[in-house]
Write a structure and sequence with these properties.
Layout: E1 13-15, H1 21-27, H2 29-32, H3 39-47, E2 49-51, H4 59-75, H5 96-106
Parallel strand pairs: 1-2
Length: 107
């Protein structure tokens, strides 16, 4: 993790929630910024958040998510097989089964 921010040096977030990207992300800045010195770090963090739309039970949408994540992994010059993906499910528990099934099928 970064000594100054506590954030990993190389990481990426793909969100699936139907958010209006920039305005909503920028509105979260106030919760992420503790001092004026944090502005650059927060800006860099917000650049890592990407939006991939789709339903919870459509393989094509999860394939698009997989491709978006893979594109990021490639641009980071990672070696195949060395990346470990972590999926954080900020979802209603009722959709965990179809989401986990789609992740297993496509990831």
């Amino acid at each position: 993790m970064s000594q100054t921010t506590g954030l990993p040096l190389c990481w990426h977030i793909e969100k699936r929630a139907p958010l209006k990207s920039d305005p909503l992300l920028e509105s979260r800045r106030v919760y992420l910024t503790k001092s004026a010195d944090d502005n650059e770090v927060v800006s860099e963090f917000l650049q890592l958040v990407k939006y991939v739309s789709g339903s919870y039970d459509t393989p094509e949408r999860f394939q698009a998510l997989d491709e978006a994540i893979a594109k990021h992994e490639i641009c980071r010059n990672t070696t195949e097989g060395t990346v470990r993906r972590l999926f954080y499910l900020a979802l209603p528990p009722s959709v965990y089964p179809p989401v986990c099934k789609m992740i297993k099928i496509t990831a």
